[in-house]
Write a structure and sequence with these properties.
The chain has helices spanning about 1-20, 25-50, 55-65, 80-90, 100-110, 130-145, 155-165, 175-190, 195-210, 215-230, 275, 285-295, 310-315, 335-345, 350-410; strands at about 115, 120-125. Strands 1-2 form a two-stranded antiparallel sheet. The longest helix has about 60 residues, at about 350-410. The protein has about 400 residues and is mainly α.
């Protein structure tokens, strides 16, 4: 028995030593550490979201930092990384916390949280446009990654996106990039939308595209083409009839100031903005606008457009200052004199006189502009001469006054 006990103890000691010396970690220990790390990360994320709903944060931060804004994302520099992390690890969130999380995201996207201070004054929550768009994007990512376990209506997030579109500023790059991502996730992908909602977004995006740059206009047009390809009845907005064709919704007249897309009556309007965009200076914008305008009701493509709104923004963005795509100019060809002479020999007498007249006119213009340039140079030289002469006169007067003062001092 003693020998068996000694052998068992030796085996246990050898196994412990082997585990301590082994470089491979224990799977159960790794799983436990990963669970604790994930719980701590999500706890930090939820705490940031809860603190971001406090409107008094704006007042404290303004008082401490003097209205300073971090990288265009407002007074909450931790909110955007928190939202990015929630969107990245949305498939690992427990389903029990989904309801509260979406409620917080809805409040942040709306920006309607208010609180009272000790003095009794009400403070309003202020979030920037990219932060509100990020909240909508994260909500859609969470629902899609947990589609089997959730059955939630995201109508309020569509309403918030419909209202956020009016606050987008085209000169802000972060606005446009986040807006392109939101249009891709919320409108171009996922489930089918209500017809009134699709028409309302189509009309509002077309109206806002008139104040955007070429990259933003291409992003909007790609979204419009995707919506019109999916929803055939929305193509009645391309008709010239009163009321947008033959379809009328529950609202008989279009209301552009409506805050709810389903109550705007967009099916009673017309996409007249495409006629202006077809004359755009950018050739890609005008070509795509013509393509959308010529899309008929019977047109039913088998394959939808492969270009997404973020890809369109990155392709046609002019951040670096160059025209995208670049315009290839034709190289000027030099004509030889012999060819010119041989070509002139085949001309008639009237055409030869016209050529000679143009040459004489060109020579007269060149001499005329040379004379004008000489006159301007002469005038500039005369002005410089007058200034130098006046400065010399003033210096002589100064010397004369100084000499008089010295004589008075010496005589006195």
């Amino acid at each position: 028995m003693k020998k068996h006990q000694l052998a068992a103890r030796l085996r246990e000691e050898v196994e412990d030593d082997f585990k301590a010396a082994s470089s491979a970690p224990d799977s159960s220990e790794c799983r436990r550490m990963q669970t604790q790390t994930l719980a701590a990360v999500f706890q930090t994320y939820f705490r940031i979201l809860k603190c971001s709903l406090d409107p008094q944060l704006d007042r404290r931060f303004n008082h401490a930092n003097g209205e300073h804004i971090h990288h265009g994302f407002g007074l909450r520099p931790l909110l955007v990384p928190c939202l990015d992390g929630l969107g990245k690890f949305s498939h690992l969130i427990n389903v029990d916390f989904m309801g509260d999380l979406l409620a917080y995201l809805q409040k942040l996207a709306a920006g309607d949280s208010t609180s009272k201070t000790r003095s009794g004054t009400c403070l309003q929550l202020k979030l920037t446009v990219p932060e509100r768009l990020k909240c909508c994007i994260v909500a859609f990512k969470i629902v899609r990654s947990n589609l089997d376990a959730l059955n939630i209506d995201l109508r309020e997030f569509f309403v918030q996106l419909y209202n956020i579109l009016l606050d987008c500023e085209p000169e802000r790059d972060n606005h446009c990039e986040t807006l392109a991502e939101a249009l891709q996730i919320m409108l171009c992908e996922g489930r089918q939308h209500d017809m009134q909602r699709a028409a309302a977004f189509t009309k509002r995006l077309a109206s806002l595209s008139l104040q955007f740059e070429s990259a933003e206009v291409m992003t909007v047009l790609v979204t419009l083409k995707n919506l019109l390809q999916k929803y055939v009845k929305c193509r009645n907005l391309l008709e010239n009839d009163g009321g947008g064709g033959s379809i009328g919704g529950t609202v008989a007249r279009y209301q552009p100031e409506a805050s709810d897309p389903e109550l705007s009556g967009a099916l009673s309007s017309i996409l007249w903005e495409l006629a202006l965009l077809s004359k755009h200076y950018h050739p890609a914008v005008s070509e795509l606008a013509d393509n959308i305008t010529n899309m008929s009701i019977s047109y039913n493509p088998a394959v939808l457009s492969t270009l997404s709104p973020p890809d369109a923004f990155r392709t046609y963005s002019t951040k670096e200052g160059a025209f995208r795509p670049p315009i290839h100019q034709a190289k000027p060809t030099r004509k030889r004199k012999s060819n010119h002479v041989s070509a002139v020999s085949f001309l008639s007498s009237e055409q030869i006189k016209a050529v000679e007249d143009t040459d004489s006119i060109r020579k007269r213009f060149t001499t005329h502009f040379k004379v004008l340039r000489d006159i301007k140079e002469n005038e500039s030289l005369r002005r410089e001469l007058n200034t130098t002469l006046s400065s010399l006169r003033l210096y002589e007067q100064y010397k004369a006054r100084k000499s008089k003062k010295l004589k008075k001092v010496t005589t006195g």
